[in-house]
Amino acid sequence: MTQKVAIVTGAARGIGLAVTRRFLAEGWRVVMVDIEVEALLAAEADLDSGDAVAQACDVSDPVQVRRVAGVAIERFGRIDAVVNNAGIAVFKPLLDTSYDEWSRVLAVNLNGPFLMVQETARLMAETGGGAVVNIGSISGLRASTLRVAYGTSKAALMHLTKQQATELGEIGVRVNLIAPGPVDTAMAKEVHTPAIRADYHDAIPLNRYGLEEEIANAVFFLCSDRASYITGQTLAVDGGFDAAGIGLP
Ligand code: NAD
């Protein structure tokens, strides 16, 4: 049987590494993409799998993104799924957020998924279609303090997901977004103060942070044939936070 191939961005650690592990466990091949070269190579070595290949790339750079798509085809001959997971967070009040911070967050969180899908959609279509999962956030579902750049990038990514799904359906490419609630990764450790952590526990019906593997399970489902009629959707994987309708801490 043909081995399927996924490109996973932000794969050096956190949710992206968990997604990579999940694809490998399901027998897929993975092109692991990250801007942090040392961490990426360490993750690749640790996985110790002939089915995983690391590619250093800044997802906001069109030239580097095009190179990644080329490497996937050269090495593995096809692309069946793209997981746009690479992201950065700046948690600051609107009036303290610099233009450079705003621009960089949008460049990585929004331009990255735009570029990656432009470069890979036709390649996926050539081998029968494929699936894209964009990683958004519950911060894209609710406005809140501290998240002017991050929340706006994730809300825009939700709309980009609908645009991509609408235009790419006819070439057999499905596109969905997962909006995780808080997950205790390096990113959360950096931006979640003790006060934010305590408030999240109260606001989430399941009363806990999510696990990286719980996000990876949902990503894999949406990339699999089990989700063959699902496109253009947002799936919150958030312990019920969105359903409870409480404001973000
Ligand atoms: P993380 O910081 O642990 O991992 C993100 C990875 O992306 C890192 O390895 C980083 O080097 C890489 N990256 C950053 N900029 C890049 C670029 N320009 N090009 C390529 N790679 C780049 O974060 P995480 O918590 O695993 O987050 C993964 C995704 O999940 C992000 O999109 C994030 O916004 C989203 N998310 C996280 C949480 C959470 O609480 N952790 C909640 C909701 C959504």
Automatic annotation (TrEMBL):
A GO MF term: oxidoreductase activity, acting on the CH-OH group of donors, NAD or NADP as acceptor
Annotated GO biological process: fatty acid elongation
Pfam family of the protein (one): adh_short_C2
Gene3D superfamilies: NAD(P)-binding Rossmann-like Domain
InterPro entries associated with the record: KR_dom, NAD(P)-bd_dom_sf, Sc_DH/Rdtase_CS, SDR_fam
Domain Ketoreductase: 4-181
Sequence similarity: Belongs to the short-chain dehydrogenases/reductases (SDR) family.
Annotated protein name in UniProt: Glucose 1-dehydrogenase
